User: Fold this.
Amino acid sequence: MAITIKDIAKRAGVSHSTVSRALRVNRLVSSETARRIHDIAQEMGYRPSAVARSLKTNRTQVLGVIVSSISDPFFGEILNGIEASAQAGGYSLFIAASQHDPIKERQIVQTMMEQRTEGVIICSSSFSPEHGRQLLSYGFPVVVVNHQGSESFNYSIYHDDIDGSSQITRHLISLGHKRIAYLGNSQSGRTTQDRLRGFLDAMAEAHLEVPENYVHHVEGGEPLLGAESVRYFARLTPRPTAIICFNDMLAIGVLKGCEQSGLRVPEDISVTGFDNITYSAFTTPSLTTFDQPKFSIGQEAAQLLLDLLQAEDGIIPDMPNVKVLKGKLLVRGSTGIPGEV
Amino acid sequence: MAITIKDIAKRAGVSHSTVSRALRVNRLVSSETARRIHDIAQEMGYRPSAVARSLKTNRTQVLGVIVSSISDPFFGEILNGIEASAQAGGYSLFIAASQHDPIKERQIVQTMMEQRTEGVIICSSSFSPEHGRQLLSYGFPVVVVNHQGSESFNYSIYHDDIDGSSQITRHLISLGHKRIAYLGNSQSGRTTQDRLRGFLDAMAEAHLEVPENYVHHVEGGEPLLGAESVRYFARLTPRPTAIICFNDMLAIGVLKGCEQSGLRVPEDISVTGFDNITYSAFTTPSLTTFDQPKFSIGQEAAQLLLDLLQAEDGIIPDMPNVKVLKGKLLVRGSTGIPGEV
DNA sequence: TTCATCAATGCACACGTGTGCATAAGGAGA
DNA sequence: TCTCCTTATGCACACGTGTGCATTGATGAA
Assistant:
C-alpha cells in the first residue's frame, strides 16, 4: 500500500491537516515545519493520490481524447499538439480509439463520464451526434477538431478544407488540366464533403465541367483502397488527367495503383494528396499535397478546452466558438503539365 | 454536479447502501427493489464515479502505457493490440509519450504513480533504467515491450529481432550479395543491437566479411535520416550492394536517397526494412521487410500485465517471465540479384 | 406460542485529501 | 496584567462509494 499524508504526519508528530497544508499552500504553516515535512515526504517517497484529491476537489486534471484510430499518422500528429498544450497546463490525457465502431464509441463515452474527465476533444471524423449529445447533456465541455457535426457542438477548431482543396484544384488548372477527378473517403463525412466542395467551386469558377462519374468515394482511408480505385478511374472515357485524393494515404495508394497499371505520374496523370503526412515526401514521385497545420490544430484545440475549463470557474470568456486555421500548398513531383489530350 | 447514489436513494426512499448493493451485487437486495433502483438510475442518467470507487476499492482499472512517440506508426499498431486486450479485460488506458526526453519521462512516471495506474507497459525504446527502477520500487507491475533493459524488469514481451535480421541477411546472401551494410538507429538501444547481431551472425555463418565502416548509425528513425545516409554509403569503396535498415521508416528514406543519387533499386543496390508498417507495401519499389506481429505483441503484453494483476490477489502464477514472438520474412521488390561487381 | 433462521435493509465507518472553524501560543500595545 | 491581534496547528467534516455488523420483519419448525 502506498504511503499517505497520515504516515508522514505520524512521523513528523503533527496532524495530517498540517501535512496537507505544508505540501500545498505553505502560507499557513511555519517555515521550519514545512521544511521538515517536505524532507520526510521526500525521504519516504510520498506521491499524493490523484484519486483522493480528485474526489475532494472535484477536478481530475485529465482531458479525454476520442480518436478514430491511433495508428493513423494524421491523428498522431494532432495528438502531439494536444499533448503539448495539455502538459503545459498540467493536464494528462485519457485517449481512446473508436475504430469507427458505434458500440466502442458508446463504451468510450461512458468510460470518460465515469472517469470524470474534465472535458473532451473529439478527433474522430465519424463520431455519432447521438453520443455527442450524451456528452453535452452531462455537462462536458467538448471541443471538436475538424468540425464534424459542429452544428451540435459549441466549440470547434478546424482547418479550412474548402480553401485548401480549391488551392490544389487551381494549381492543377493552372498547369493546364481540364479533366480532374475526385477520390473521397465516405467514412470522413463532412471533411470529404468540404474538400469536394472546394474542388467543385474552383472548377466552376474556371468554367470547367465535372462529369458525375468523376467523383468517386471509397469506404475508408487505407492506401489499398486508393490503389484499387485506379482501376475505376482508368476505365473512364475520357480518362481524367488528374486525380485529387481526399488525403495522403489514399494518394499513396493511387500512386502505387498507377504504377501497377502502367500509368506514369505525372506524365500520364497527376495525383494530389491532402494533410502532408511524413511519408508524402518520400513517395515516388513525391506527392503534391496540402499542408494542414496538424500540430497547431491539436495545440489550439487543447488550449481552447483549457480556456473553457477556466471560464467555468466564473468568467464567461469572450472568445469565438469556432477557429479556422489555414494551411499551405506544397507542390512536389506528382503534378505536372497534362500529356497530349 | 453529477448525481450520486444518494440522490437515487432519496428518490427511491432507501439508504445509499441499498442502492450501492443493488447496482453491484444484487444478491443482497430484493429483486423488486433492485429493479426499481435500476429504473431510477437509468432515468436520472446515473454514472458511477470511478474516482470514488477507486479510492474505496484501491483499484483504478487503468493501465499506463509509455511510448516514445504517438505518431510513430509502429507503436500505433502495438497500441491497437494493447487496447484490444485491455478493453476485453475491462481496463482503460492512460497513454503518454516520452519523446525521448528524460524530463518528460520523469513527469510521466510521477503522473502514473499519482494516478494510481495499476500497472505499466513500456513501449519506449529509449526508456531510462533509472525511471524503471523508480516504478518497480513503488510496487508497479511492469511489462516491457521489445526487451529494452529487460534485465532490470521481470516481465517482457519481445520479438525475436536476432532471428528476423538473420533471415533477412540470409535472403540477401542467397541472392548472391557479399557486400552488405547495416544502417542502425542509435536511439533504439538494444533493439538495434539485436538486429545488428542477427546480421553479423548470418554473415559470419556464410564466411562473409563486414568492414567496420559498413555499419553506420544515425540518431533517430525519421525517413529523412535514411535519405541522408545514402550519401555516406555511396561514398564507400567498394560500395555495398545491399543495405539492411534498422526499420521501415529509415528504409523508406533510403529508397528516396537512392533515387536522388541515381542508384536504381534493386538493380544497383538492394534495400531492406524491418517491421512491415503499412507504407512499406506502397513504396517504389515495394519494400522487402520483416513482418513483426505488432498487434499480437501489444495484445500479449497487455494480457500478461492483466494476468500479473490477477496474480497479485494471492496466487503466484507459473508463467514464463519472457515471451518471444516470431515474425516472418516478406520478400518484395526492393531486393534482387546484385549487379556486376 | 416461542424460538431459530434467513432475507432485506440501515447504520456507521473507511478510503486519502482538503478546508472552515476553533484553539492555543506568542507578541504588542495600553 | 489585560486585551487584541497574528500565527500555527488540530479537530472534524466532506467528497462518493463499498461493506461489516446490527436490526428488523417474516417464515418455518417445534
The mean pLDDT of chain B is 91.
